[in-house]
Specification:
The structure is a single chain. This protein is α/β, with parallel strands linked by helices. The protein is built from 3 helices and 12 strands. It has a 6-stranded mixed β-sheet with strand order 7-4-3-8-9-10. The protein has a 4-stranded antiparallel β-sheet with strand order 1-2-12-11. Helix 1 packs across helix 2. The protein is globular, with a radius of gyration of 16 Å. The structure holds inosinic acid (IMP) and magnesium ion (MG).
C-alpha cells in the first residue's frame, strides 16, 4: 500500500507488465505504419512517460510532438468545448496517431480527434495505455489499447492524483474506493 497526498493506493500493473505491453503495442504500430512516417501526438501531461517508452520501441521512421488541452473554451449544449494548445506541425496528409494515457468518459479525446480531423490528416488513430470502458460516455473507437481497467481511479506511470504520483514506476489503484 502506498500513499499519495491523502489517499491510499494498491498495485494494479507492475512496471514489467507495463513494459511488455508497451512493446507489444509498438510492434503492432510498426506493422501498421512501416513506410508511413507517422506523427505521434502526445496529450500532456499524462502521456509523456508512456509515449517516451512507446517511442523508444518504435524502430521505424516516425516523429513526435505534444499538445495540451485547455480545460474549456466555453460551454455549449454538448458540454465543455476544449481547446488544443501547442500544435505547430502541419497535419495535412500525415499519418497521425494520438497518444493518451487513459480514456475515461472519452470526452477529451473525442474533441481532440474532431479538431485534428479538421486539419485533414491522411489517417488519424488513437493509442491509449488504459481504457475504462464502463466510464465511456461517447462513441469513440479506440484503435490500440494497452489495458482495459475497471472504473476506478489510478495513479502512476504519468497519471496523477492532483499532480502527484506521476513518477511512480507502476500503476496503482485507489484502495477502498
Ligand atoms: P475523459 O475526458 O473523461 O476521458 O478524461 C481523460 C483524462 O482524465 C485523462 O487524460 C486523465 O488526465 C484524466 N483521468 C481520467 N481517469 C483518470 C485516473 O483514473 N487517474 C488519473 N487521471 C485520470
Ligand atoms: Mg491525460
Amino acid at each position: 500500500m502506498i500513499k499519495v497526498k491523502d489517499k491510499f493506493f494498491v498495485p494494479l500493473l507492475t512496471k514489467e507488465v507495463i513494459q511488455e505491453r508497451v512493446c507489444q503495442l509498438a510492434n503492432e504500430l510498426m506493422e501498421d505504419y512501416e513506410d508511413k512516417d507517422p506523427l505521434l501526438v502526445g496529450i500532456l501531461n499524462g502521456s509523456f512517460i508512456f509515449l517516451s517508452d512507446l517511442f523508444k520501441c518504435l524502430h521505424i521512421d516516425c516523429e513526435v510532438t505534444f499538445i495540451r488541452v485547455s480545460s474549456y473554451l466555453n460551454t455549449s449544449s454538448t458540454g465543455e468545448v476544449k481547446q488544443i494548445l501547442g500544435l505547430k506541425e502541419n497535419l495535412k496528409d500525415r499519418h497521425v496517431i494520438i497518444v493518451e494515457d487513459i480514456v475515461d468518459s472519452g470526452l477529451t479525446l473525442s474533441q481532440v480527434k474532431n479538431q485534428l480531423l479538421e486539419k485533414e490528416p491522411a489517417s488519424l488513430k488513437i493509442v491509449t495505455l488504459l481504457n475504462k470502458p464502463e466510464a465511456m460516455k461517447v462513441s469513440l473507437p479506440l484503435d490500440y489499447v494497452g489495458f482495459e481497467i475497471k472504473n476506478e481511479f489510478v495513479v502512476g506511470y504519468g497519471l496523477d492524483y492532483d499532480e502527484k504520483g506521476r513518477n511512480l514506476e507502476g500503476i496503482y489503484v485507489v484502495a477502498n474506493p
